[in-house]
Amino acid sequence: MYKKTLAVVIGLLGLVVSSADASVLSQPVYNEQGEIIGTTRSGSVAATGPELPEGYSMLTVKQGDVTGDGIADTVYLVGRKEKADSIYAADLCLIVKNGQDNSLYRKPLEQVGGYDARLFLGDFSGDHVDDVYVETASGGSGGWYYHNIVTFRNGEAKEIFGKQDNETAYLTGTFQDGWKVELKNRLNGRTLLLDLHDRQADYVRLGLYKENGTLVGDNRAMPAPYGRMEAADIDGDGVYELTGLQRISGAYRADGLADIETVLKYSGSAWQATSVRVTIPMGSGQATPARP
Fold it and tell me: How far are the Cα atoms of 35, 94, 105, 163, 233 from residue 109, in angstroms, in the given order?
């Protein structure tokens, strides 16, 4: 459908003739549903990149075959800035320039904005074609990052790693009476009991426990979204995995209980954890295996 639509559009538009350049061809611009939302001129794209809406800036660019036709494409990451020299960009968007016919394809990254946005091209889905990985710092005190992975195949953009994946945690924490929290590894079912007696005064003041150690507040610990993630082919099969770091916190975000390192691999329809490693920071109390 993508190629047929492209052929029809080119046939209707033909060549744009001007005294300055008589060989500039109008090219279609697609949205994430594969619908044509406008055109651009391939001559200007080749020289300076795609024409951007007012207020948008080019953040970074990479080249690689992301459409699977064996020809290198150009991937642009753009964002909206209040000022041209601002280090923060909102409403991030991927634009792919097809290396075969110079058509452009647009994929907004929904509700993603931040600092130091980066692009990486590599095969995460296992079909031997590069996917587009975007990492963006949130800028908050928690050190969180947004991570998005998008595939571009047959004229269709599909996000295979997004907001929900970025917030999935494979370690859960449940507070218990007696100044304890149980940490459970969802991958293997193993649990640890972490002693929290050194935090009694703080937890009583915050209303999490009574002075006798009885739990009165919310019994769930708080896993944070992933911080920076590393893309690497860990198992040597030619497909990239993601290694991400998270922290699970207690009564408030700075109340760190444990750090989690998770290795994720795409199964073709979802991300699966292949390993989960838990580290208890110094000063977090004594951890002991919980009884079955």
Answer: 17, 7, 13, 10, 25
Listed residues 166, 193, 218: the one ending a domain: 166
Q: How many domains does the chain have?
A: 2
CA 186 distance to own-chain centroid: 22
The whole domain housing 206 covers 171-289
DSSP 226: P
Same structural domain for residues 153 and 255?
no
**One domain for residues 93 and 158:** yes
pTM: 0.79
pLDDT, one tens digit per residue, over 49-92 is 788 888 899 999 999 999 999 999 999 999 999 888 899 999 99
114 and 91 Cβ atoms separated by less than 8 Å: no
Question: Which candidate, 51, 50, 57, 111, places its Cα nearest to that of 86?
Answer: 57
